[in-house]
Design brief:
- This protein is an alpha+beta fold.
- It has four domains: 2-20 and 102-281, Hypothetical protein af1432 (Orthogonal Bundle), CATH 1.10.3210.10; 21-99, no CATH class; 291-403, Methane Monooxygenase Hydroxylase, Chain G, domain 1 (Up-down Bundle); 410-556, Heat Shock Protein 90.
- Helices cover 62% and strands 9% of the residues.
- The protein has 23 helices and nine strands.
- Strand 8 and strand 9 form a beta hairpin.
- The longest helix is centred in the middle third of the chain and has 40 residues, at 288-327.
Length: 557
């Protein structure tokens, strides 16, 4: 039954039954392909019978493909630039758009279909231009991108009337649409497109773009036009449906057209600047600001998914870190190394799963923000998304850094000189905020075995924290170094007269069971505790009598 239904539908489509009729001019353009006696002037005469088509075609040729300093003023001139066959196909493609209605119908949105088709065409054109392939022509890529899914409109026209509301159309991925079409009708719209373009005598290289899609279309033995158009299809699908797959698209483009991620972002964002003007040639309206916002909403949803995935994956990573840190004193060197490898593999997996799509979305949003007017809502939205991506990236980077195994390199160090050096680094900050610094060192030379880099970062963190807590103009920071005779420790105390450290910040420093939410305000305090723990030291937090803060670091001597 399925084969019989498929044969009936193919016959119906092949004979044009139920499909909107092409305009008389389009039919003449189709017939040109079968008539060897037709000249370039004959083609010009046919096209110029339709003033609207002539105007649209000249605009398209003049601005889209060549950007010549002088406007193309005649169809004859356009034929010289493009060639007989290419101009015929371009004119036929514009006429094809006129064959179908606009607006929404049961199960299909024609406006959305042509909007994404035009976006795909512009991206395919730019990918072709960026490619170093000598046989890749941008105008062919434009046409291939524009009519790539034309079979979907054809299939909709012959779809059973009672099922049109459930037509698996424009808002699905290609694979999802094809799967549903085959389940319901036993035929998919790419088969229909292949048949239709053959019937209308499109060139074989454009017909092949219908036959090959997905992984198959990107195989090295496929024509470069197939690969470029498929890449543009994935770009359009990624931007309008699955923005979190942007990184995979960038990698694919880098392999095919040998261009970096930033160039790919530029091509994708530039298309928004062009699509509004080009829509006029296809006789429909596009609001590029609205389209940007739609895409940015998809990007925002993708960020929300990444954020959820990040919390889940990183919590597992933190559990690995805690287990690794606790086990270091209990297991052999060989076992510790084995667990370190497991931890590193987990780090790599998390980085691949989260960092790559995060960077891709952030980079794309930044590009959109740069190329949009500051008072444009789309530009403002892009800035918000770019900042959110940067925030998530910061948290990710800090947790990844925290999760790396910390192995202190102990050397004997003069703690007084070390502390003096860090205080000097903050000289400009203290001066700018009017903060007085009091040094209380009982000895000039106090030597302790420690990891210089690690303890330096801890001191920077706590001095920076004190500066942040001081909001008034008469701030004071006191740093003291005192030996503790009874415990055989060295005490480094940093006190201030600022506001009390908030409870969540205290928890970040003192809480032993870390979670991803601990790091939302920054990783510095948990990392400081990790470094001090590795020194077998301790950290105490207290309040001064005047309401300020005291942080005491105690290191074994």
């Amino acid at each position: 039954m399925e084969n019989l239904q498929k044969e009936k539908l193919l016959k119906k489509i092949g004979e044009g039954e139920g499909i909107p009729s092409l305009s008389p001019l389009a039919i003449q353009l189709v017939e040109l392909a079968a008539d060897d006696s037709i000249s370039a002037q004959d083609l010009a005469d046919i096209i110029e019978k339709d003033p609207g088509l002539t105007t649209r075609l000249l605009k398209l040729v003049g601005s889209a493909f060549f950007a010549r300093p002088k406007q193309v003023t005649s169809i004859a001139q356009a034929i010289v630039l493009l060639g007989f066959k290419r101009l015929r196909i371009m004119a036929l493609s514009l006429s094809l758009r006129d064959t179908f209605p606009m607006g929404k119908a049961k199960g299909i949105d024609y406006d959305h279909f042509w909007k994404t088709s035009l976006y795909r065409a512009l991206v395919a054109q730019e990918f072709a231009r960026a490619s170093d392939q000598p046989d890749m022509n941008p105008d062919e890529a434009f046409i291939g991108g524009l009519i790539l899914e034309i079979g979907m409109l054809m299939l909709y026209e012959v779809y059973p009337e009672g099922k049109k509301e459930n037509f698996p159309g424009w808002n699905l991925t290609l694979e999802e649409a094809i799967s549903l079409e085959e389940q319901i009708l036993g035929i998919n719209h790419r088969e229909v497109g292949n048949l239709t373009l053959q019937r209308w005598r499109f060139p074989e290289d454009l017909v092949k773009t219908q036959r090959h899609f997905g992984v198959e279309a990107m195989e090295p033995d496929k024509p470069i036009l197939c690969r470029v158009v498929e890449l543009a299809r994935r770009a359009t699908e990624t931007i309008f449906i699955h923005t979190n797959e942007l990184y995979d698209l960038q990698e694919l483009a880098q392999g095919l057209i040998k261009r970096d991620h930033e160039t790919v972002n530029k091509i994708l964002s530039d298309a928004f600047n062009k699509v509004e003007a080009f829509a006029d040639q296809l006789r429909f309206r596009v609001d590029s600001q609205t389209e940007r916002i739609e895409v940015l909403e998809n990007a925002n949803k993708a960020l929300a998914r990444i954020n959820f995935s990040m919390e889940t994956s990183l919590q597992g990573l933190l559990d690995h870190v805690s287990e690794y840190d606790r086990s270091l004193t209990e297991i052999s060197v060989e076992m510790a190394q084995r667990r370190k490898v497991i931890l590193q593999n987990t780090l790599d997996a998390v980085a691949h799963e989260i960092r790559n799509p995060l960077l891709a979305i952030g980079g794309f949003a930044k590009r959109l923000a740069r190329e949009t007017k500051k008072d444009d809502r789309g530009g403002q939205y892009a800035n918000i998304i770019a900042k959110e991506a940067m925030r998530l990236e910061r948290i990710l980077n800090e947790i990844m850094a925290y999760s790396q195994a910390y192995e202190p390199a102990f050397v004997e160090e003069d703690v007084v000189s070390l502390v003096e050096g860090v205080i000097d680094e903050f000289g400009d900050v203290f001066k700018k905020k009017g903060i007085d610094v009091i040094r209380d060192f009982s000895q000039k030379d106090v030597r302790v075995c420690l990891d210089t880099k690690g303890i330096t970062s801890v001191l920077r963190q706590f001095l920076n924290n004190s500066v942040g807590m001081i909001k008034n103009t008469d701030g004071e920071v006191k740093v003291s170094i005192q030996p503790l005779t009874e415990t055989k420790e060295l005490s480094i105390r940093i006190s201030d007269n600022g506001q009390l450290i908030p409870g969540d910040v205290r928890n970040a420093l003192l809480e032993s069971n870390l979670s991803t939410k601990t790091f939302d305000g920054g990783l510095g305090l948990p990392m400081a505790r990790k470094i001090i723990d590795a020194h077998n030291g301790r950290i105490d937090l207290k309040e001064t009598n005047g309401g300020g803060n005291i942080v005491e670091i105690c290191l074994p001597r």
